[in-house]
Amino acid sequence: MPGVDRPLRVVVAEDAVLLRAGLVGLLERFGHTVVDAVGDAAALRDAVAAHEPDIVVTDVRMPPGFTDEGLRAVVALRAHRPSLAVLVLSQYVEQTYASELLDSHRGAGVGYLLKDRIGEVTEFVDAVNRVAAGGTVVDPEVVRQLLSRRRDPLRRLTARELQVLSLAAEGRSNAAIARALVVSEAAIAKHIGSILAKLDLPPADDDHRRVLAVLAYLRG
Fold first, then answer.
1. What's the CA dihedral at 196, 201, 207, 208 to 10 degrees?
2. Pick from 165, 189, 161, 185: which is nearest to 175 by CA?
3. Which tens digits make up the pLDDT trace of 176-187?
4. Residue 91: beta bridge partners?
5. Among 100, 120, 98, which Cα is nearest to 169's?
């Protein structure tokens, strides 16, 4: 799914002052407007109510308990504002948090990335744009761990199909997968059809629904 082609209004929620400032500077360097940058879940809820941003970029763990306050805040916000796009950042792969966030999907974009990805500037900003456009972006490490949990059913897939599945679960379009694997889009479409058939998943024309179907299967 392509990203947005306009400046975004963003709320950033991160308790670490230096990282928060870094996120603000990075987003603004690429033309977006950070309407508020806050350090705890209560302030995040207030900022979204006050500014109605296009997207929230938030840490999972925030004050006061440093457990899952950021995640809880955005899940609650999406319950009242289903169109709110959310990109959640985490220090480590926490599959329960990733699953809960993805399960909160109500038609708006959603993403779950490790904080290490922020250093890959172009990819991080691309993820922000894709989520804001309604896409689903999942960190490759989360995908790898989910794949490892479902290894037995995946034996029906060829090595190439596993590569395609992993990239599809990250939220990549057929065109992006084709570029990554240096093959034609037609070849990728054929692989996707085979994967969905072998995993007993219904076909989906929309990339976003396809990703959600694949992730639902992997979460099993």
1. -150
2. 185
3. 999 999 999 999
4. none
5. 98
